[in-house]
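Pipeline run #58 for the internal structure catalog. This entry was flagged by the ingest filter as a single-chain record with no existing model, so it goes straight to prediction. Upstream metadata was stripped on purpose; only the residue string is passed forward. Reviewer on rotation: M.T. Logging verbosity set to normal.
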Amino acid sequence: MKKLAILITAVIFASCSSDLESLNENIKDPLAVPGESLFTGAQKSLVDQVVDLNVNNNNTKLWAQYLQETTYTDESNYDQVTRTIPEKHWSVLYKDVLKDLDEAKRVISETTYLTAELEELKPNKLTIIEILNVYTYSILVETFGDVPYSEALDINNLLPKYDDGETIYKDLIGRLTAAISALDVNTGSFGSADRIYGGDVAQWKKFAASLKLRMGILLSDKDAAFAKSTVESAVATGVFTSNADNASYTYLGSDPNTNPIHDNLVLSGRKDFVAATTIIDVMNALDDPRRPLYFTPTEDGTYKGGNIGETSSYTTYSHVSAQVEEATFPGIILDYAEVRFLLAEARARLFEVGGTPKEHYDAAITASILDWGGTATEAADYLAQPNVDYDLSILASTATTPWKEVIGTQKWIALYNRGLEAWTSIRLLDYPAMAVPTDAVSGFPNRYTYPIIEQSLNGANYGTASAAIGGDEAETKLFWDLN
């Protein structure tokens, strides 16, 4: 009888132990995440970071002097340290974008899909992941200079070396060329998991070619021959041809899937930004028809911008327009207007891409006005102004390279709400000139400084990279920024 009791007790204990262990199981979170879901998450993290204007995440709309802070003016005065903005930018792009794309690639590669039709989508999915990898790394190089690349994303290597920025950039262009060739436009891809193009492979091919055009142009002053061949091959492949091609992320109407600008300006209830005097003054002088599309008028019906680096009363100056604040306002990472400006730059540099600088310039401005909600008549009237007309503006310019001033200024206006790319364009073309902030802590930032955590945890490699680029300073010009 005693043995029977012991046996019963052991069985009960084992049963209870099993039940207790099951209580520790997380039955809400999946044990494995589909690669497609990882791709969608990485895509959103990428676009959020690019379009955001939260001063903790992205300061480039302040540096491009589209906006001015109302109360806390550190970031308008080029302070990168107080809020450790470089660390946030670095972390999002490496951890939330590149690492998730890397995992999406691994999962999709290892997945055997249920049907032959689903299985044949795999190559295009992997190639689109590759294109977004290239885009993300290009931002890192354009922002910091030398960055971890060949040893990045390896969880077993906590101290990755930094690779040379120019070497990375040219390798990325090679990867992009291969990806363009690998895409099969007769087959689908991610479908609704792709929030930019809905899985349309032909659109991804145009995007990749347009990105290649942009990257080629960036190298024009550094390696003109390489830039020329890159740009001409990109155009031959087929770049954007209308606003319908815009790489536009689709946001939803409710949090947390709204455009982050809506979160920053509406859901937060905060009033942190007004229009900046730099862009307002230029647009006022040109009687630009996009003013009411970009900004709200003040009480007297005029458009006014806050002085750069100074506190600015929210009630005194213009604000971001209602359409930009919309929850579903699309997140743009590359558009047709920018492509036509890039083609204007290419022709001004005598690259063989067809057309004339003026033709591309006019098409770019027209595309921008139409895309923002203006009319063809407004675009034609705007282009007819002597201080907008390409040929007359070139003649009136006193710049050493007049086309850089003319194209650079209008491209900057068109890139409103796209701070990262506007900042890059300003650094490349040196136009328009930015106002000096009232309490600037540095000269105009030519780069993000490296994250402080890199100095602490990866000090030796950080030191080598810092020395290689000429010093870890905001004013240090990157390899492609020579003028």
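catalog note: Confidence is low (pLDDT under 50) at residues 1-18, 26-30.
catalog note: Residues 247 and 361 are 20 Å apart (CA to CA).
status: ready for reviewer M.T.
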